[in-house]
Amino acid sequence: MHAWFALPDVGADLIERMRLPTAKAVALLPELQQHDRLRIGPVELERRGDGGYLTFHNLSCLNAEDDALIDAFETAVDLVLLDERIKVGVLRGGVMDHERYRGRRVFSAGINLRHLSAGQISYLDFLLRRELGYINKMAHGLSAAGAEAGAVEKPWIAAVDSFAIGGGAQILLVCDRVIAEQGAYFSLPAAKEGIVPGLANLRLPRLVGARMAGQIILDGRRVSSTETDGRLLFDEVVHPAEMDAAIEQAVERFSAAAVIANRRMLRLLQEPAEALRSYFAQFALEQAQRIYSADVLAKVARV
């Protein structure tokens, strides 16, 4: 895969094609438009007013990401982007039944390490697909290829309860508004686990600066929503009881007509297409070398 993405024309074409909506999402769109609610495996999607609310329900593993969640998540993201009534996407974790967090919401525990240890995390369908599938669709919208109206993109709001670890933290880097409850935290432990944290190495430095990005990625620094540096990652910090109201207010603000145009202009500067392709070509190589290496498998076997 590294060789294909390293070719500028071929790599750019692959990235564009991976931003096409999935056939499953296209087939489910009429049902969403009729009922305003869908359950797609571990993901629940509901339209309320201008908002498309995606709630993760991988409950027993604290919303850890696995192949099934990735597939459902991409379908739900596609539906938010395809439904013309929805103006803003909202991401939030469901209420847990895990013993330690029972009754509390959790955003995401990142990659499911038990699945990784068991060989159930795939290189193509998980590690590459999530980056150029739903995450890139959130960042840059659906591809213009074959669409009469051109590319379709919308702003995204993340509501972080408890924590956003690993892959969950990576999602925040493409969201336009991140609301966190007091005491929630951000963490990217991939280097300690022995892998590369997706496109975080590309996106995190522009948010927090190179020095702090190195502390988070290389040394595993955890950033709390209530510390001063947390303001670089969390736009708004609220009491847990105020989270629902804060989300609704953000949806109203980000539904404004000019938000998408200005969002698009910001992305042109922040993440040019060629920078994304070049980074991803190297990422495909580095992650392939790391994901099933002996030290990684030894670490996850102890989880």
Automatic annotation (TrEMBL):
Q: Which InterPro entries does this UniProt record tie to the protein?
A: ClpP/crotonase-like_dom_sf (IPR029045), Enoyl-CoA_hydra/iso (IPR001753)
Protein name from the UniProt record: Enoyl-CoA hydratase/isomerase family protein
Q: Which domain of life is it from?
A: Bacteria
